[in-house]
Write a structure and sequence with these properties.
Pfam family, one: DUF1577
Structural class: alpha+beta
Number of strands: 19
Oligomer: single chain
Protein name: PilZ domain-containing protein
Number of domains: 3
CATH architecture of the largest domain: 2-Layer Sandwich
Strand content: 25-35%
CATH class of the largest domain: Alpha Beta
């Protein structure tokens, strides 16, 4: 702790020592100076926070994904100078992505790392993400059990280390046909010329990531009237924005021409759900009913297609991470340091870095020797933005038999026979 205070004295004019509250304040100063992201556990949901400002009795945090749930208590967890700290904090204010907490008055929980992290420059690894939930973050038991009961074969396949995308496609198309025989799965190609409505829908999906549901193509209200669904949207927000920019007459004419064109194509109703790679929309699933059919797609069926697109997006991203990790191993997944408790690895893909903040349970394959490959599961708990590359810290939680013995021998040799602090 004295080493930390000495460093902070060189960074900040204000240096107060001697009490727990000031030591805690120094910890937050360190996190701010190092631009460190850390864990913020709110209502059992693991979020990523960063220090914005430190006041006399409060600390302002930036937390992009927070949703206020009524509780005014949370836990903060981070690592500084090889020590893991955890505090329970009181939330005084929540302002969209900005959270104000009271500065903790005492050191509540800290643990010195017992195993040394050994720097390495010749160790690489492959990794895959493990299923926790489709949206990432803490396991949402109700939603996950619902998805697994609704799509058992699809969920079983994406849980595998190497999902078979051909099999996923077969299961997916069979599930879509339960809603309608009329559907299309589109992947965007920048060289393909699109009509004005097609371009509009593509831009809408890429900018918002929302699922479009038009229940009745004969009524303009289906396109522009405000909705209250959690998962299904029309073009109400775009309608309002276009009115402000282009005027009401032009905007109404635009959406009316879209409606008429789709009616001429005999569309009765449709749902368009985005397909993502990481968080980028790269295509969509469109399911529709026509005048030749004797049904319209219901909101329950539209949500069913939305859920299928979420599972498909997860499967595509999991396979992309797997092949990206395997094929470009030496440039993307270099191990920076390693111990018996965890490791720090390096990647260069910003999209992957952001995705792993939510899907942070991974399975690692670490070739120590030609005949020995460690298979270790872990949770990513540290995210460091280094500018042109990124470091991620992992804590192990399970491994294959004897793997820790192989790792201990490796570290023993690397550390010149010193393993503990």
């Amino acid at each position: 702790m004295q080493e930390l205070i000495t460093i902070l004295e060189s960074l900040f004019e204000e240096t107060i020592v001697g009490s727990d509250v000031n030591i805690v304040k120094h910890l937050f100063y360190y996190l701010k100076a190092d631009n460190r992201e850390f864990e913020f556990i709110y209502e059992e949901e693991n979020l990523v926070a960063a220090v914005e400002e430190i006041e006399a009795d409060t600390v302002s945090l930036l937390i992009p994904d927070i949703v206020e749930k009524g509780s005014r208590r949370a836990r903060v967890r981070f690592e500084v100078m090889n020590i893991n700290y955890q505090f329970e904090v009181v939330i005084t204010d929540i302002q969209q992505e900005k959270i104000i907490i009271k500065t903790p008055t005492e050191l509540q929980s800290y643990q010195l790392r017992t195993n040394r992290r050994i720097p390495v420059d010749d160790l690489f690894m492959n990794f895959i993400i493990l299923f926790r939930s489709l949206t990432g973050g803490s396991r949402e038991v109700g939603k996950n059990l619902y998805a697994e009961s609704r799509f058992p074969h699809l969920m079983k396949e994406i849980r595998k280390d190497q999902p078979d995308l051909k099999l996923v496609n077969v299961i997916l198309t069979d599930a879509i046909q339960k809603v309608s025989k009329d559907y299309e799965i589109v992947f965007y190609n920048e060289t393909k010329k699109l009509t004005e409505p097609e371009t509009f829908i593509k831009n809408f999906l890429q900018q918002t990531g929302k699922t479009v549901y038009i229940p009745d193509c004969s009524r303009i209200e289906s396109y522009i009237q405000e909705t209250n669904s959690e998962f299904l949207f029309n073009f109400n927000s775009e309608y309002k924005d276009m009115i402000k920019e282009l005027g009401e007459d032009f905007t109404l004419e635009f959406f009316e021409s879209m409606r008429k064109m789709e009616s001429r194509d005999f569309f009765v109703s449709y749902v368009i759900a985005p397909i993502r790679l990481y968080e980028d929309v790269v295509g969509h699933v469109k399911t529709y009913s026509t005048a030749m059919d004797r049904f319209t797609i219901s909101s329950a069926q539209a949500i069913y297609i939305h859920e299928l697109s979420e599972i498909l997006s997860y499967a595509f991203t999991k396979v992309a991470i797997q092949y990206g990790s395997y094929e470009t191993m030496q440039s993307t997944t270099r191990v920076v340091d390693i111990s018996l408790d965890g490791l720090l690895f390096e990647i260069h893909d910003k999209r992957l870095f952001q995705y792993l903040k939510r899907h942070n349970i991974i399975k690692m394959f670490i070739p120590l020797k030609k005949e020995v490959t460690l298979i270790i599961r872990g949770e990513i708990i540290r995210y460091l933005d280094k500018g042109d590359h990124y470091h991620l810290g992992v804590n192990y939680f399970s491994s294959s038999p004897n793997d820790m013995l192989y790792l201990e021998d490796f570290l023993f040799d690397k550390s010149m026979k010193i393993l503990s602090e």
